[in-house]
Amino acid sequence: MTRILLAAALGLAPAALAAQAPAEAAPITIVPAPATTLPLKHAPMPTSPEISAKDLMTRLYIYADDSLEGREAGTIGNYKATDYIAAEAKRIGLVPAGENGTYFQTLPFKTRVLDSTSSITVGGTPLALSTDWSATGAGSLSNPNLPVVYGGIIGDTAGALTPEQVAGKLVVYSFPSTGRRRGGRTPQGAAGVAIVSEQILGFFRRPSTFVDDPSRPQPQTAAAPTIIMTEAAAAKLFTTPFDQLKPGDAGNPVAVNIRMNVEPVRYAARNVVGILPGRDPKLKGEYVAIGAHNDHIGIASQAVDHDSMRIFLHLVRPGGAENSRTQATPEQQAEVNRQLAAWREAHPNTSRADSISNGADDDGSGTVSVLEIAEKMASLKGSKAPKRSILFVWHVGEEKGLLGSAYYTDHPTVPRDSIVAQLNMDMVGRGDAWDVTGQAKEGGALRGNPNYLQLVGSRRLSTELGNIIEDVNKSGKHGFVFDYGMDANGHPMNIYCRSDHYEYARYGIPITFFTTGGHSDYHQVTDEPEYIDYDHMARVGNLVEDVAMHVADLDHRVVVDQPKPDPHGACRQ
Questions:
Q1: Distances (CA, A) of 322 to 10, 437, 513
Q2: What is the rounded average pLDDT of the residues 391-414?
Q3: Distance between CA atoms of 112 and 321, rounded to whole angstroms?
Q4: Where would you tag: which of 71, 187, 274, 281 has the fewest CB atoms within 10 A of its CB?
Q5: What pLDDT is stored for residue 19 in this prediction?
Q6: CA triplet 355, 359, 362: central angle to 5 degrees?
Q7: Per-residue pLDDT at 545 exceeds 80
Q8: Rounded distance, CA 74 to CA 448, Å?
Q9: Nearest partner of 520 among 371, 324, 344, judged by Cα
Q10: Nearest-angstrom CA–CA distance, 399 and 4
Q11: Which of 132, 123, 124 is nearest to 227 (CA)?
């Protein structure tokens, strides 16, 4: 699932950086951790047509292995991962539905890299690139004597500067410590913008990525890049201590020379697409789409101790990356230390450094579940086979802003209006009571249980689709208790807009997002196959397969009875 702050950090408008920070979870009651009895490694076994915990375990230990290096889009790890999916699709018997008779649809995926000769100098002393500052954006900025002014907290209208105050200057903004949205816009006419934040600087040490698609104009960007810098570096720009600055205070002029280079990614970023043709000659030209995303977030900038990190996250940051700014209280840190000591005593000589974000749940779980569903459906013959065709799409670049699903729905390999529904699986491998699966709109933590499953968007376009899922859950005796809490209109976590289903929904295609929700390992190196509930995940897979079969066999298209969004407008939950 796309992380809100990461999506914002990859944006180029400073206002976006202030507008989309993750919500902080409320303090939680400690729930004892479930016993972890699964191994670090697992020998693969042949899979069978049935959707089973055994098969899912085999697949996920392959797909979330260190050898795939976190599957970041545009890297060798993701390239190998999509090779695996395509090989399985071929073995299962899906018809290639990518480009040129292959299973692949390759995105025009490129990186925007800060030129290594770029520099910022204050009083003849250069600031250290990557350590003190970085930059993002499409433009360049060169000025040997650029005036500086402090603009206050970005987005804060109370102290907003006038166009005259910022004209021709580098405007330095503080990032709001709470991450809460504030109204207002950055004044026009500035020569450049700098945002002071240790938190987001780490994102910009990596090259930014984008899809160079002429049919989908890129967001409007400033003529100059946005600079991100540490507070220590920003302090060198002013004579007044940084924490005492007021909007409008002048700083020391700086010499700036910033250039960006655009390069194609080294390894192709690919959607994987396969079709199971329907058995009804009149309906096989329509498709029920089932999808997941094939990428994750790659390798962390530094290794951490896996076990201490997992204990810390669960006690202090129950939402994982959603709570990335939360610091431990003294009481929490004492409990972390106590639990870690107990763990070390029970597991001597097992300490391990970890830097690879394997994304077992996000979204290895969805990816391998879709493979299992495909294998089961492909085994159905004669009157048991689906009437409509089933379109399987494993999207790339979800973690970078739903890039693969946006590209696929803009450039579908089947007629877009032939897709009658899309069922999205993203993070379907957890849902235990130990996990904080999200937050209620009004506040308070949501928790999993043995029959837990979140549904998002199931009635936003089609009341009928939402009803079908409820009916199938009962008639098929799947036994899930659906949690619609994260689907509430205006929910601050905005989950409806944060996974691949939305790119289908924006074109009026009914969708449902199936997920077992968040947890403390979300977007962390601790999201590993050994912590997945494979029995629960198999139940989710069987439900989605059952729903897909019912939709595929309807004597009519799923009815769209709710307003369709603007396909090129902003998503609003």
A1: 16, 11, 19
A2: 98
A3: 25
A4: 281
A5: 28
A6: 150
A7: yes
A8: 34
A9: 324
A10: 10
A11: 132
Give the model confidence (pLDDT) of 114-150 as tens digits. Answer: 999 999 999 999 999 999 999 988 889 999 999 999 9
Exposed/middle/buried for residue 486 (C-beta within 10 Å: 0-12, 13-18, 19+)? buried
Q: What does the block give as tokens for 488?
A: 């509430």
Both tokens of residue 386?
Answer: 């689906």
In 289-329, alpha helices (H): 306-316
Helix axes 306-316, 330-346, angle to 10 degrees: 140
The 10 Å Cβ neighbour count of residue 353 is 10
Q: Give residue 149's pLDDT.
A: 97
| Nearest in space to 540 (alpha carbons), one of 443, 424, 438 | 424
Q: Rounded to whole angstroms, how far apart are CA atoms 415 and 403?
A: 19
Binned at pLDDT 50, 70 and 90, residue 177 comes out as: low
Residue 402 structure tokens: 């739903």
Residue 172 belongs to what H/E stretch? strand 170-174
Q: In terms of pLDDT, which residue wins out, 256 or 23? A: 256
Residue 425, SS3? strand
Beta strands at 260-264 and 109-114: parallel, antiparallel or unpaired: antiparallel
For residue 255, the 8-state DSSP code is E
**3-state secondary structure (DSSP) of residue 205:** helix
All structural domains of the chain, each given as residue ranges with its CATH number in brackets, are 45-107+268-552 (3.40.630.10), 111-263 (3.50.30)
What ranges make up the beta strands (E) of 60-163? 95-96, 104-106, 109-114, 119-122, 125-126, 133-136, 141-146, 148-153
Q: At what angle do helices 53-63 and 366-379 cross, to 10 degrees?
A: 130
Q: Give the N- to C-terminal CA distance of the chain in Å, as an integer.
A: 16
* 245-301: pLDDT as tens digits: 999 999 999 999 999 999 999 999 999 999 999 999 999 999 999 999 999 999 998
Name the nearest CA neighbour of 283 among 390, 377, 387, 381. 387
CB 215 within 8 A of CB 120: no
Helix H or strand E segment including 86: helix 76-92
| Amino acid occupying residue 73 | A
- What 3-state DSSP class applies to 150? strand
Residue 191 near residue 141, CB atoms below 8 Å: yes
Q: CA 528, CA 307: separation in Å to the nearest integer?
A: 12
Give the pTM: 0.89
Distance between CA atoms of residues 295 and 119, nearest Å: 33
Output 75-84 pairs: Cβ under 8 A, ≥24 positions apart: 75/265, 75/266, 75/267, 75/298, 76/266, 76/267, 77/298, 78/267, 78/269, 78/294, 78/295, 78/396, 79/267, 79/268, 79/270, 81/294, 81/295, 82/270, 82/272, 82/294, 82/394, 82/396
